[in-house]
Write the structure tokens for this entry.
Amino acid sequence: MSPTTRREPIPTSRRPGDAWREPGLNPRESEPQRSATGVRPPDVSDTLVRRLRDLRVSVTDRCNFRCTYCMPKEVFGRDYRFLPRKHLLTFEEITRLARIFIDHNVRKIRITGGEPLLRRDVERLIEMIAGLDGLRDLTLTTNGALLARKARALRDAGLQRITVSLDSLDDAVFGSLNDVDYPVEQVLDGIEAARAAGFSPIKINMVVKRGANEDSVLDMARYFHGTDIILRFIEYMDVGNTNGWRLDDVVPAAEILEMVGAEMPLEPVDPNYSGEVARRYRYKDGGGEVGVIASVTEPFCGDCTRARLSADGILYTCLFAAAGHDFRALLRQGRCDEEISEFFRATWTARKDRYSEIRTSETVLWPKIEMFSVGG
Ligand code: SAM
């Protein structure tokens, strides 16, 4: 889409300079009020004294995009064998695990994938999870392709927030990154539908890759400036082993902030809560907020409170892990909640991951789980 044909940006509904807070994730609220089962198990710390607060749940390993930095077409083509349906956790299984993890003080759940809106009736799962006691924040990350159709149903089901991935406003650039020639306009339609359904603020994830879309950074910043949409620039990461990552392809967050700030001055904003992934900035002219996720140049393993559950029920305690912990086996062996809880305690207590802090040109070659199977 050329800048001349672009639609008007979405107007802001936020007062200039307002700082938005993640619902229920006030850093002063260190403990959830109560457990879903009424009996709160002890809060478990890992070997680096980090607790679990944030669970990402992948509901499918399939995606309708072939983003070159995530799921390159050459590797994940027609012959690639995705998980068979019977291997996927059912909605009931996911909800049961979610309840157990909420008992362990998870406060935020993000539904992701693959592309989560490809999972049939995903809004039914949202409704089931939204009904769990003790959860403070339920959100979903999508590429936006099916969002125009699904936004209302997701909202009605109880989804609180949404993040849409969009890497450029230029069709040629976006098409070369999503590698299926998906047009920008349709993602913007999805964002607009989400806004109309009542999601606010909406976040936009833009992965910035050197030589691919760094020229789109300013264009994206200008487009969302003055709206209640929060654009977050993500450093290109060495997730998985198929995207051919090189350090030279990373555009450091500092460079992105300098580029944006030179035209639209920025100032830092306090984190919404400890362990927040994005560093927040606001435009000094009151034009809203942007964020950077600098996992490569400024790793934040020290306060990582996240775990990821793959679509087939494997729990990964790091985005860069090589192996995970099989919760589906426990579910399907008929284990009781306390046994599953105990397995979690053992898994989390042993956790020592800090990949981004020890990343070198050699670690890049370590076997790692692909991002589309554990979610973003
Ligand atoms: N399909 C959904 C989407 O596109 O948002 C959810 C899954 S996707 C794996 C989640 C997020 O991870 C997206 O924002 C995507 O851009 C980001 N991502 C994927 N590969 C990445 C990489 N190599 N470096 C940084 N971010 C990446």
